[in-house]
Specification:
5-stranded parallel β-sheet, 12 strands, alpha/beta, binds calcium ion, Rossmann fold, Arc Repressor Mutant, subunit A
Length: 236
Amino acid sequence: MQAKQAKVLVVEDEVSIRKFIAVNLHRNNFLVLEARDGETALRMAQNVPPDVIVLDIMLPGIDGFEVCMQLRRFLPHVVIIMLTARGEDMDKIMGLELGADDYMVKPFNPLELVARIRAHLRKIQYDPPQKKNCLQFQKLLLDLDGQRFYKNGQIIDLTPTEFAIMKILMNKPYKAFSRHEILNCIWGENYFGDPKTVDVHIRRIREKLEDNPSNPQWIETVWGLGYRLKGEGDYA
Ligand code: CA
């Protein structure tokens, strides 16, 4: 079986270093994405979540420490390897609350970076699956173990029923679910409740989730049927 090509996002403002890393990763069969500052990296990681992020600390705008912390909020399981110039604060890099998995001191041998990335990816593959028991769609993350829901890394408090509805919608983004399907998923096949209760729950979820609940960007009403989850800014 052929392994899936792992995606690595390289965040470094110095073009020569970034290209050097990118070329070496590419040569070793990684899919490489590049960002030259923290804001770009965060935006790219939200749109296309990578498997690994190689993150320089000294960046224009927000620094690598801040990027690392923000990344962890919406990508709890991505591998983050920080790059540091000699003399930078190692304790801070390895600090638990920062959430980096590893670091390398510049200048480094690119083959060592490749080896470390492979080692981290292998570790993830053998990790117990419950660690990854999450549903993710764009900026939304549903942590099934922790029963928590996040938008953009910020917790949104949902009731158990609201959580169950988000789980149904996030399992299949863009699929339209009828009110009956949603009721059945939550309360079982033999529940003969009023489908309108679904509307009440959806309204409450929208009040918490949407920037403007009367013009919802996430949960779309499918007229005569029910609801579907679509992406922010998607009009399809
Ligand atoms: Ca730099």
